[in-house]
Amino acid sequence: MSLQNWIEACADNDIEVEDVIRFDHGEGTYAIYRTDKGDYYATDGFCTHEQIHLSNGLVIGQIIECPKHNGKFDIPTGQAKRAPVCVDLRTYPVKIEDGKVWIQIGS
Fold first, then answer.
1. What residues does each domain of the chain span?
2. Where is the Rieske domain (predicted)?
3. Cα–Cα distance list, 76 to 2, 26, 33, 36, 106 (Å)
4. Residue 3 burial by CB count (10 A; 0-12/13-18/19+): exposed, middle or buried?
């Protein structure tokens, strides 16, 4: 495994199924998810509508709902799914290795 641009975010068991946690690195803030299928994903941490942190939101299946105005995003793609959000989230590659969640934040 090349660790170039890969950052260890957390242990894989730090995130429950259908949950999200906040991860800060450098000047960036990210949201790390575990969907209903147990898959892990990462996006920018703030809602594109009013910059509310998504780690306080609700994960339902593969959707994250913003806690402020209930806008929704597709977790795997970052696609905006319900108003008031209309700008997609940036997504980041994720891999699980040796019980750790790694995200690639700079390529």
1. 6-104
2. 7-103
3. 23, 23, 9, 12, 18
4. exposed
Give the number of other Cβ atoms within 10 Å of residue 106's Cβ.
11
6-104 maps to CATH 3.10.180.10: no
Centre a 10 Å sphere on the Cβ of residue 103 and count the other Cβ atoms it contains. 23
pTM over 0.70, yes/no: yes
Close Cβ partners of 60 (under 8 Å, ≥ 6 residues apart): 18, 36
Strand partners, 90: none
pLDDT tens digits, 33-47 = 999 999 999 999 999
- As a whole number of angstroms, the distance between CA 30 and CA 23 comes to 5
